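New here. Invent one.

***
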Amino acid sequence: MMFTKRQGLIIWFRHMKNLRKLKRLGHLIYASKKKKYALIYVDQDELEDVKQQAENYNFVKRVDISFRPEVEMEFEHRQKPIKRQGELESFPRTS
């Protein structure tokens, strides 16, 4: 089974009433009424076309591309945890 590569678009808009037009561009995940933005997932091969199409709407302020695919999700090389017990013993005790 082959999965298509998807990427998120954050679309900042002026008012909620045109949200239906944004739903046609891709898979709408979330829309914030207070902060006036929507998160939409689209195929990576259609990303630039959908971004250009969204920017052409007059109610759209700005379109940002999500950095999620570029973020490394492997956490094996993280630092080792600090030994808390050893640190506590090095401090002088107060009675």
